[in-house]
Design a protein that fits this description.
Blueprint (H helix, E strand, L loop, with lengths): L5 H26 L6 H41 L10 H55 L9 H29 L7 E5 H18 L3 E6 L5 E5 H18 L5 E9 L2 E8 L21 H6 L6 H11 L4 E6 L3 E9 L2
Parallel strand pairs: 2-4
Antiparallel strand pairs: 1-3, 4-5, 5-7, 6-7
Helix pairs in contact: 1-2, 2-3, 3-4, 4-8, 5-6, 6-8
The protein binds adenosine-5'-diphosphate and magnesium ion.
Length: 340
């Protein structure tokens, strides 16, 4: 039995105090040889015990329990659930412990969000700085006289224009991420044929693939090629994954899109036979701005935001995306979509 309610504590106090008080009385009676009938003794002792009980009970209730109750009520109200403190102080102990843990978790979460935010801002400004400084350099050189130099003026303007394109890429990707994160990404679910769509995307990326002599093919092992998803958003996913396989796969390599049945879902795999990604990078691959080879990605016009957008889009469809990769064998991204 736990002695944690005012009543129980008062009983404990009564028992604890009764023994010495009774002993004291007995001593006084013996010393002064007072003789009282046993019934009276019992009555005196009983009223003494009752007095001790009521005094300690009302003291505990008034000065401790009532005050704890007020604090407890305030705390539980802050938590959104207003619980009435019954009588058990043990419950207060448990609840306060739980509340402390909860607050601790919230603080940790806020701290990690804060450092994430700081890192994100740092990344954004860093990514924008490079093209801005490039443009600034070319424009200053042109102003300082290079504009009249037929050998370089067009070249400098073209390079500035490329940097502007890069900035636009970054800003568009950032806009997309901010939309996704503020839940403004509205998905328009329609029924469409994914095989037809993949061939359209192959057409769009044909030039890029040719430049690196990458061949594109489809291996369809599913029985139903219709999906229920947002066509434009899934386009973005497919384009980024196929483009990545062209950009980061081997020159003269191969990109294969495979489709498999997976119950109610369709499993879509985009596999290349490139250099692969080492295991240490895989867990962070979907993070914003994360790039395995920064300089390669930049020279390809990449922002490092593609895969994080891809993951967001797939998760907004309540589906999953995974990656597996073996060095010098290749990389495979796989995600699922609901069949229609
Ligand atoms: N198929 C792949 N093979 C090897 N590395 C890849 C592949 N796909 C993505 N990566 C790596 O993952 C990084 C993140 O990809 P992504 O977010 O699309 O950024 P970006 O394409 O802008 O560089 C790339 O920079 C690249 O280093
Ligand atoms: Mg990309």
């Amino acid at each position: 039995m736990q002695w944690t309610t005012p009543k129980k504590i008062a009983i404990a106090l009564t028992l604890a105090l009764a023994v010495p008080v009774f002993a004291l009385f007995a001593l006084i009676f013996l010393c002064f040889e007072i003789r009282i009938p046993s019934l009276q003794i019992i009555l005196i002792l009983a009223s003494l015990a009752l007095a001790i009980y009521f005094i300690s009970y009302s003291f505990l209730k008034k000065y401790i329990h009532e005050r704890v109750k007020v604090i407890y009520k305030t705390l539980t109200r802050h938590r959104g659930v207003s619980t009435d403190l019954e009588t058990d102080l043990d419950k207060v102990d448990e609840d306060v412990d739980e509340m402390i843990n909860e607050r601790q978790r919230e603080i940790e979460e806020l701290k990690s969000m804060e450092s994430f935010r700081r890192e994100f801002l740092g990344n954004v400004s860093h990514e924008l700085k490079t093209p801005i400084f490039n443009i600034q350099g070319y424009i200053h050189t042109l102003i300082d006289g290079a504009i009249k130099d037929e050998n370089v003026n067009m070249q400098y303007l073209n390079r500035s224009s490329k940097s502007v394109d890069r900035m636009i890429n970054i800003v568009e990707d950032l806009e997309m991420i901010s939309k996704i994160e503020s839940n403004q990404l509205e998905l328009e679910f329609t029924r469409w044929n994914i095989i037809d769509h993949i061939s359209e995307i192959f057409d769009v990326l044909e030039m890029k693939a040719k430049k690196r002599s990458v061949s594109l093919s489809v291996d369809n092992q599913s029985t139903n090629n219709f999906v229920k998803a947002d066509r434009d958003k899934i386009s973005q996913v497919l384009i980024n994954l196929i483009e990545n396989s062209i950009k980061y796969g081997n020159e003269g390599g191969h990109t294969k899109v495979r489709l498999f049945d997976m119950g109610d879902n369709l499993l879509i795999e985009i596999a290349d036979n490139g250099a692969g990604i080492t295991a240490e990078h895989l867990p962070r691959l979907f993070e914003r701005f994360y790039r395995v080879d920064k300089s390669r990605s930049r020279s390809e016009g990449g922002t490092g935001l593609g895969l994080s957008i891809v993951k967001h889009i797939i998760e907004a469809h309540r589906q999953t995306i995974n990656v597996r990769s073996t060095e010098n064998v290749g990389t495979t991204f796989s995600f699922t979509l609901k069949k229609a």
